[in-house]
Amino acid sequence: MKNKVIIITGAAMGLGLATAKVLAKKGANLVLVDYNEEALKNSAKEIQTNYPDIKVTTVKADVSDEAQVKNYIDVAFEEFGKIDGLYNNAGIEGRQASIVDYDMDVFKKVIDINLMGVYYGLRYVLPIMQKQNYGRIVNVASVGGIRGVINQMPYVASKHAVSGMTKNAAIEYGKYGILTNAIAPGAILTDMVANAFKQVNPEDPKAAEKEYASRNPTRALGDPKDVGSLVSFLISEENGYINGQTIAIDGGESNLY
Ligand code: NAD
Questions:
Q1: Could you state, in order of their start, the residue ranges of all structural domains in the chain?
Q2: Which of 60, 51, 57 is nearest to 27 (CA)?
Q3: 81, 92, 147, 218: least CB-packed within 10 angstroms?
Q4: 124 catalytic, yes or no?
Q5: What is the position in ligand 1's atom list of the atom closest to the CA of 10?
């Protein structure tokens, strides 16, 4: 990944940060984007300290705001003169509620961030990648982009849309050397998920985790680093021919009936 320029949205924590660390280790220069500026700066500082040979730039942006998305793409291009990869990762779950009870404002927010945020990223990065005749894009869907999840209708709708937009970008821009794929993570043990287990069972969070993991074919939760490894392959030149796929990274959970 040396000399490659990769943009990561939602980079301040969770899967975005884990992937940033994997890519930094492989020598990529990074443009880290998030709307949580303080956490973003701290994460960038940590990465820069551990990997002093790469360049790390941060841009505060809310991906649901088209102008702010255009700005992070512009900043990346002005700073590096090219964009090799976009990891379109920022997303939210929304609240859990039945279809008829779902709060409309939250519904729209989930769609604005998860669907429109990914679309704006595509809209502004594709023309640059087309001129370069090269680009790799990884959009973040979810197991909820493959099947339904009870009480999470807007999340499921937005993640199916991410999978659909991935297919369209793949077929419209493949001829310009641009490969677009999506990943569909299952339950990955980010800090947020680990904290949730602490709330479920403050005395023994590991027991809560084990109980949850017992439903997975591997009897384990995913490690954020596993997601980083998959993304680092899909967003690199090593991926020469995978295009328009939504790749589940869920221990096989989405195959359960
Ligand atoms: P997280 O909450 O730990 O991190 C998300 C990051 O995105 C945060 O830094 C947050 O500030 C940022 N963000 C959220 N909305 C934003 C916006 N509008 N503009 C800019 N930044 C924004 O979540 P995570 O678990 O790392 O999830 C990352 C992606 O992976 C999401 O798209 C999520 O839907 C997807 N996902 C996660 C899991 C999992 O198990 N962790 C499973 C399936 C899918």
A1: 5-188+223-251, 189-222
A2: 51
A3: 81
A4: no
A5: 7
Active-site entry in 134, 155, 212, 241? 155
Tokens of 19: 């992937």
Whether 160 contacts 168, CB under 8 Å = no
Buried-state track 76-109, b at ≥16 Cβ within 10 A, e below 16: bbeebebbbbbbbbbbbebbeeeeeebeeeebeb
* Distance of alpha carbon 69 from alpha carbon 91, whole angstroms: 14
* Nearest in space to 174 (alpha carbons), one of 120, 230, 140, 134: 134
User: Does the domain made of 5-188+223-251 have the CATH classification 3.40.50.720?
Assistant: yes
CA 17 to ligand 1 centroid distance, Å: 10
pLDDT tens per residue, range 105-140? 999 999 999 999 999 999 999 999 999 999 999 999
Neighbours of 198 (CB within 10 A): 14
Question: Is 141's C-beta closer than 6 angstroms to any atom of ligand 1?
Answer: no
CA 13 to ligand 1 center in whole angstroms: 8
> What ipTM is given for this predicted complex?
0.99
- With the most atoms of ligand 1 within 8 angstroms of its CB, the residue from 7, 46, 65, 92 to mutate is 92
Please work out whether the CB of residue 91 comes within 6 Å of at least one atom of ligand 1: yes
Cα(79) to ligand 1 centroid in Å equals 25
